[in-house]
Amino acid sequence: MAEQGGRELLVSAEDVGKRFGDFIALHPLNVKVHSGEFFGVFGPNGAGKSTFIKLLTGQLKPSIGEIEVLGIDAIRKPQELKANIGIVPESESPPSYLTPVEFLEFVGRLRGLDDLDKRINHWMDWFGITDKRDTMCKDLSKGQRQKVMLASAFIHEPRILFLDEPFANLDPIYQRKCRTWLLDMVADGGTIFMCSHVLEVAERLCTRLAIIDHGKVLASGKISALKHSDEETLEDVFIRLVGHSMAEAQGLADGELEEE
Fold first, then answer.
1. pLDDT digits (tens, 9 = 90+) for 234-251
2. Residue ranges making up the domain that contains 90
3. Which end of the chain has fewer CB atoms within 10 angstroms, the N or the C?
4. Residues 73 and 195 in one domain
């Protein structure tokens, strides 16, 4: 894929939109993410973040538009795409009646990994769940299940990770540990595309971000470029943009009601 300043273009979405019947989940948008970037998508609940990440990872097909990730057509070759990326979906747990080791073995064999036992032992130890290796996933805590899901995304060391609310249910110690690992990955040339509604995460991690609401991109770019002044915080930016978006949406709804 094309390069910019020595960085390879890894994600390209052109005029991508998604409709479910009459409901527009995501209005047409364009995004490009290059190697070595930590790109974040932030918005309130129901803004379209999860739909966006599912489109980019081949879990959903867009209603319109074209998507390429790692030079792979995400619409026409979703299985090839999934084999080459790491994904942590929102609110998804490992299979209930597998143990963490069995699930990671399944993921590793599916990806054809060498040194699988070594990789599994490393991530079980890294996440502090070695003592749970033979426990059914249904009997793990929410935080432990999230650790297993993260381990399954990290285990094959992909060039790009797609993370949807990755820190959900993690305690502060492992939130910090994961943040540090992700930043190290980016420093080593890896790339991360993350969806979240936690603004603190953006301030600490993201090189660029997009703020979306009601399926529309309200603003995107470096955090410094989104601020109107040095005094304005990212929270101020978020409230300014999302508050305006909500007011517009309410105005449209009121207009529709008046017409009826």
1. 889 999 998 876 656 555
2. 86-157
3. C
4. yes
